[in-house]
Fold:
Amino acid sequence: MLPEQQDILWTFITLLFTLFSIYVFVNVIQHCRSRTDVSAQKWGIVFGAFILVSLFETSTMFDLNQQQQLGFIRWQVLTVFVLLLVWGLFFKSAKIEDQSPPIVRAAFFYTTISILLAGYTNWLPQQRSDPPPKGGVVLGGDITMEDYTDLGRVIVFGAKQVAGQKAIGKGQCPLCHTFDPGDNIGRCPNLFGVEERSHTRVQEERYKTSPIAIGETDGPSGIVKGKPEDIPAEYKRQGSPDLVGEDYLRESLMCPSCYVVEGYGKEGDTISPMPLIHKPPISLSPVELNAVIGWLQSKDTPGEFGKVTVPLPSADDSPPAEEASGGGEEAPLFVTGTESIDDMINTLGCPLCHTIPGIEGAMGTLGPKLTEKVNAPLRLKDPNYKGTAKTGHEYTKESILNPNAYIVEGFPEGVMPQDFGSKLSVDALNKLVDFISNTEETGSEG
Structure:
């Protein structure tokens, strides 16, 4: 069940609750009319109020998604239990307890069973019911927009993504971003609805001036903000120079610090922690970057591509088939240990999140700075450390193989990939640990 959908069981129960309140009202009025010593007006107002409350709750429930319904249902349950108690009080006060219908007891039983069942089914792991994604896309020839946007998905999640899982592709996006409503790890903005936001964002006054003004050049990326005609030629789109949603998406990928969403940047939301994905170590080609933009424009409306504005690539500007396909039957990432330490670290994508002394371009800030020659001994003494390492070398290895054994303060759990053990040979792991366990601030004495 997707978080943006409604839960069928909750929707059924909310309708049942409303019908039940109407039944109770009719039952009470019938008893009042058959007895002269019971006030039909008083009890009619009381149980009529329950109908109004139930109708309001039902209307509200239909406007909520599954995740919101799960939190709201408790108010309807409370309303029904109060209704049953007041209904019992009515029979007691009228001294006609023996005339109370069996439905009172049945309603208690049915409500309890339904809620237990609904709670259990929503507790189970929830996955998309989409068919398994394609293995990859080969560009050229009769490629369709569906194929091209699927390439964008492959770049984001990888060709071997299993439905419902947040796999990580070449673009590394799921390390920091989420894509479904209500799902937010807090590192970077949730990208649900980004196509719609892309059109309004460029109209905001804050976009025009912060952190740099339109027309100014961002130093790290070399991109001129808000000027699609000044984008590097190989990435430039054709057509009007007017700023549109596609330009905002492209600029967000190539120059993330041109505009920083409030609450997701450093130094007062003036610097984005996101890497430049058209430069090493990610290095998306123009065709790949456009594919990601196309996927972002279409992902919230599956099967519809009317909002996609990027053009289909031609055979002349397509990357090699094996690159464009995301590998199709791609071999899993694996580092053997014969590579240089720089190549190993870049292949594994460590610079995307970490600043690593001695590695050129490793200036990531999404994860802790890796100065483990000093950090590791201090963390082993931290009362919050619950791992099994005894030395800095063991701590570094544990941090790679089991990153949740110790979470550095200020960084959330579960962001660092958990599968490095399957991506490293024994020699590669030892070589990586030997290097990282001895990293220290540049200029420090060894």
